[in-house]
Design goal:
This protein is α+β, with helices and mostly antiparallel strands. 41% of the residues lie in helices and 23% in strands. The protein has seven helices and ten strands. The strands form three sheets. The chain has a four-stranded antiparallel sheet. The longest helix has 27 residues. The protein starts with a helix and ends in a 7-residue tail after the last strand. The mean pLDDT is 89.
Length: 222
C-alpha cells in the first residue's frame, strides 16, 4: 500500500486511532483495490445502487442534488479520507440520493459491501469507528434540517459563516463555492444572501473581499 494511500486512510474516521501498521494489518486480508477516475467522470447518478465501500484517496468528488426546478445544487464535497455514502452501505434502500462527479483526477480505495461487512466483523475498532461515523452523520443531518426549516435567512448566513470559520480554523474564510452555489445549497435566493452579507458588513460584523470573508464581531450577526 502506497504512502499516499495510508496517509489518506489515517484521515478517514473509519480508521481513527489506528497507525499505518494497524491499518495495513486490518486491510491485509481484505479484497480491495485502487480505482482511478478521470476529471469530470461520473462516479454515481441519482438512483444508482451503492454497491461498494469506497474511500477517497486523492482528489475531490462533488455531490449534487436536483432541485424541484431540475437545477443541480451542490450539497457537499468529498476529499481525501472521506468514506463515500457510509449511511447507505447497509440500508434497505441502497440507492444514491445525489449525483456524484469528479472535479479533477480522483483515486478511490474500493471494496465490496460484502468485503466491508466481513472487515467490520473481524475488527471491533473498525466497527466502533463506523458506528461513530453513522452517529455523526445523524447529528449533522439533524442540525442541518433545523437550520433549513427553522432559521431565518439572516440566521442561516450567520450559521454558515461560523461553521466555515470552525472548519477552516480561522475567522478569515475562503469561499470554495460561488455565491449562487451557496444560496442554492440553502434554498434561498442569491439576492437574499447578498443582502444579508451587505447588512453584516455595514453593521461591522464582517469584512468582505472577493472570495474572502473575515468575521469581525460575531455578536453583530445575531
Amino acid at each position: 500500500m502506497t504512502t499516499e494511500t495510508l496517509e489518506s486512510l489515517q484521515r478517514c474516521p473509519l480508521f481513527a486511532g489506528m497507525n499505518n501498521v494497524e491499518i495495513e494489518i486490518a486491510l491485509s486480508g481484505a479484497d480491495c483495490k485502487l480505482v482511478r477516475y478521470e476529471p469530470y467522470d461520473i462516479y454515481a447518478l441519482t438512483g444508482m445502487p451503492c454497491r461498494n465501500a469506497d474511500i477517497v484517496v486523492s482528489g475531490v468528488l462533488v455531490c449534487r442534488m436536483a432541485s424541484l426546478s431540475g437545477k443541480l445544487v451542490e450539497v457537499s464535497r468529498l476529499r481525501a479520507g472521506n468514506l463515500i455514502a457510509p449511511a447507505f452501505l447497509f440500508a434497505k434502500d441502497k440507492t444514491f440520493p445525489v449525483s456524484v462527479e469528479t472535479e479533477g483526477e480522483v483515486n478511490i480505495l474500493r471494496m465490496s459491501n460484502e468485503t466491508f461487512e466481513k472487515l467490520l466483523r473481524s475488527n471491533w475498532q473498525l466497527t466502533e469507528n463506523f458506528i461513530r461515523v453513522l452517529s455523526n452523520i445523524n447529528a449533522f443531518l439533524t442540525k442541518r434540517l433545523r437550520v433549513l426549516s427553522l432559521f431565518t435567512v439572516r440566521e442561516k448566513v450567520a450559521w454558515l459563516l461560523t461553521e466555515m470559520a470552525a472548519e477552516q480554523g480561522s475567522d478569515t474564510i475562503t469561499l470554495s463555492r460561488s455565491r449562487q452555489q451557496i444560496a442554492d445549497s440553502f434554498g434561498i435566493q442569491k439576492f437574499s444572501l447578498l443582502r444579508v452579507l451587505s447588512d453584516f458588513q455595514k453593521a461591522g460584523a464582517i469584512r468582505v473581499y472577493d472570495r474572502q470573508i473575515t468575521i469581525v464581531d460575531r455578536g453583530k450577526m445575531q
